[in-house]
Amino acid sequence: MRFEPRHSSPHLAPVGNVGRLMFAVVAALVPGTAAAAWFFGPGVLVNMAWCAATALAAEAAVLRLRQRPVRPALADGSALVTALLLGLALPPLAPWWLPVIGAAFAIVVAKHLYGGLGYNPFNPAMAGYALLLVSFPREMVAWLPPGDGGLDLSAVLHYSLAGTLPPGATLDALTQATPLDTLRTQIGLGRPVAEAMASRPDLFARVGGVGWVWINGLFLLGGLWLLWRRIAAWQIPAAMLGALGLLALVFWLLDPARHAPPLFHLFSGATMLGAFFIATDPVTASTTPRGRLVYGAGIGVLIYVIRTWGGYPDGVAFAVLLMNMAVPTIDHYTRPRVFGEEKGR
Amino acid sequence: MNGCPAWSFPGGLVLDGHKAESTREPVAAAPVPPVLVLPLQQHIGNPAVPVVEVGQRVARGQMLARADEYVSAPVHAPSSGTVAAIEERPVPHPSGLAAPCIVIETDGEDRPHPDCRPVPDYEALDPSALRNIIREAGIVGLGGAGFPTFIKLNPGPDHAVDTLILNGAECEPWITCDDMLMRERPREIIEGLKIMRHALRARRCLIGVEDNKPEAIAALEGALEADERETIRVCPVPTRYPAGGEKQLILALTGKAVPSQRLPVEVGIVCHNVGTAAAVYRAIHRGEPLVSRLVTVTGPAMERPRNLEVRVGTPVSDLLALAGARTTDITELIMGGPMMGFELASDAVPVIKTTNCILGLDHDPHRQAAPVRPCIRCGECARVCPAKLLPQELYWFARARDMDKVQDFHLFDCIECGCCAYVCPSHIPLVQYYRFAKTRIWAQEKERRKADLARRRHEFRLQRLEREKHEKEERQRRKKELLKKARGGDEAAKQAAIQAALERVKTRREQQHAQARNVEPQTEAQRRALAEAEERRRRLAGDSDGGDDDAV
Known about the structure:
The complex is a heterodimer. Chain A is mainly alpha-helical.
C-alpha cells in the first residue's frame, strides 16, 4: 500500500494559532475597556468601533492590493487588536475622522508598508496614535471628566459624525485635561503635588486620577491573566512597571513636592494598558528573555522621563516607539548562550 | 529514589504520551516472512559490502555484507534461506528512494550458522577484542541514529570514561519498545551494560528512565543484584520531551552540559540506548549478531497496537497486519515517533536496525486547517528549545538563505526535536527550514573542500614550477662559476689545450676523408660514382670558403 508523505517531522498537529492568541488579547481587554466606558461614556466604544471598522477595511484593501489572501489575515485578529488598542488610547469625545485617520495610518503605513504582520518594526497602534497626537494636538488632549460625562450614546454619535453637541453644551465646558496633564501643569506652576491633588477632588483620588485607577487596575487584571496563559511575555510588563515605579519612587523620595508618587504613575494614564497590551506586542518587541527585560525597562524609564520632563502629558506611545527602534540592537546584545556554550564566547 | 542526581534541562514539552496503548500485551515474536530485504546501509557511515552471491545458501547469523572501512557495520542474515537477489529496493528513508539491498528467500528452517557461538569469558578479553566482536556482530545504536556501537565503546587514548549512561528515557510519544524491553528483559540490559562498562572501563553506570514508566523502573531495580547496586543505578527522570536527547539526558543525570559541537566522551561520559545494551548482551553471551529488534506498532489507526520482536528485513506491511491496522484510515505512516520520525511512502519497505516504531496516524484535518502565517516573533519556540537556540532568528536567516548568520546563531546545535514547530502559533514548519539550511551548508562545505583541493593542487604546481626554475638557474650558475674558475687558470695551458683540440679535429677529419665508407657490397657503377664524388669533394676542399654554395 502506498502513502503520500506530505510533512517532515514533527507530525503532531501544532497547538495554538495566531488567531487564538489575538482573541485572547481581546478578551483580556474587556474588563479595562468596560471600566473606561463606565467612567468616560460610550465615546470610548464609539472610537473603538470606528477604529475596528477602518482597520479591518484597510487590512482587506491592502491585502487585496498586495495580492495576498485576505481571509486568513482578517481571521487572525491582529488588525482588530491594533484597532482596539488605538481606540482605547483616543480621547472619549472625538470626531469620526480622528479614529479613522489613526487606524488607517496604523494599518496601511505602519503595518503593511513594512511588509504586513510580523515585519513591521513599529507598533502600529502607537504609530497611529503618535501621528494623531502630533497632527491634531487640540483634539487629542481634550478629555472628558470622569463620571458619565453627561453625554449619552446618541449625543456622542452626533458629535462624532456631525461635530454638533447638545444645545447649551460647548466643547470647552465639557472637556478638561487628564489628571496626568493637570498635575504637570500645576507642578509647572510651582504648586506642591499634594496641594495640587487635594485642590481637585473631582479629578484626583487617593492614588491616581478618579476612574483611572479602576481602568488601570482592570487592565492589570486582564494582563495578569495573559501572563498566566503565557500569551504575553512576563519580562516586558515586569521590567516596564518596575523601572517606572522605581524611578518614580526615587524622585518622589528626593522631592515629594515636585514629583508625583509612584503609585500615581503606575495607575494613571495608559500605564497598565501599555505594560500588558502595547509593549508586549511580540512583533515589535525584543524576543530574547534578557532583551525583553531591557526593552521593558527602557519603556518604563522613557515614560517617566517624558511625563516628568518631556513635552507631553503621557509618554507610553513615544516610549514604545523609541524602544521599537532599539529592538534590533537589544536583540543583538542579549542573545542567550546556547546549550553547552562556554562562558565568554 | 535511591538519591539519584537530578538536574533540569532547558526548554522541552510535556506531551501526551500515548504509551498505554501499546503496552497492554507482552512482546510477541513476529513470524519470519518468506522474503527478507536487507539494505546495505542501516547505519551511519559507509554502506556494507556484500560477501555472498546470488543463489548462495545462508544460515541465520551468517554475515551477508562486511563493514567497509572504520565507520560502518556488517549486515547478517536474520534467518536461513537463499540469497535471491542483490539489487536496489525501496528502503525506509525520508527521501523515499531505493538503495542496494540483499534479498533473502527464507526456507522456514531458521537454521543458525555454526560460527554463532557465545564468548565464554568476556572479562578476560581486551577491550579492543571485545569491540571487534561487537563490530563483527553488526551492532549499531538502536535508539534511532544507528551509529556503529563499537566506535562509541572506544573512548580513545585521550579520554577516560567516568560515567556510562544507558538511555531508557524513550521520550517520544507512542513509542514503547524500550519500555517493553526494560520490563521484560531487564537482565539482558544489565548484562549488556556490564560488558559495555568493561569495554569502556567506566567507573559508574546510570540507567535513565522517564518516570512515566514505573513498571520498567521497577523491573530494572528488581533485576539488579546486590553487588551491582553499588555501581549501577536506575534513575527516573521527569517526563518531558526530549529527555531522551543524548545531551539532555546527560545534563539531567549528571548536571554536565556537553559543550556545543562536542562529544559526551570529552566530559567523560558515554551514552548508549538500552536496546543497544541488550544487543551487546546477545552478541557476547549468545553469539547472536544483530538480526532482530523490538518494534512498536501503534497509532490511532491500529486495532491492536503492540510490540513485536521483528527480524530485520521484515516488510512493514507484515507488522501492520499483525497490529490489525486499518490501512485505508492511515493518513500518515511514520517510521519513528511523531516528533522526529519520517513518513513512509509505502508499507513495502523493510524494518531496519534503527526502526523503533511504526506509527499510523489517522488525523489529518487538523493540519489542513492550519495555514502557515508570518512569524510574529512571540518567542514560544525559544522558550521550548532544549538547545537554548533562538528558533525565530534561525528561521529568519534560513529563509533569507543567510548561511553565515544561521551558523552564527548555532544552527548545528539544533537536534531537530520539533518542539519549536509544535508550539509555533503561526504553524511555520521550522524544522524543515533548519534541515534545508543544514543540507545547504553541507553542500557548500563540500564544494568548498573540492575547490580547496583544486586550489591546493594548483598552488602546488606553481610551487613546483617555481622550484624547478630555481634549480635550473642554480645549475647554470654553478656551471658558469666552474668555467670562470677554469678561465682564471694558466692561459698558456689553455691555449695549448685548444691547440691540441684543434689538432685532434684536423686529424680526425683527414682520417675520415681517407677512409672509404660503405665499402661493401659495391657494384662497379657505385664504385665509379663514389670515385667521382670523392674527386668533386677534393676539388671543393681546395676552393675558397664561398665555394660551399656551388657544391650544392
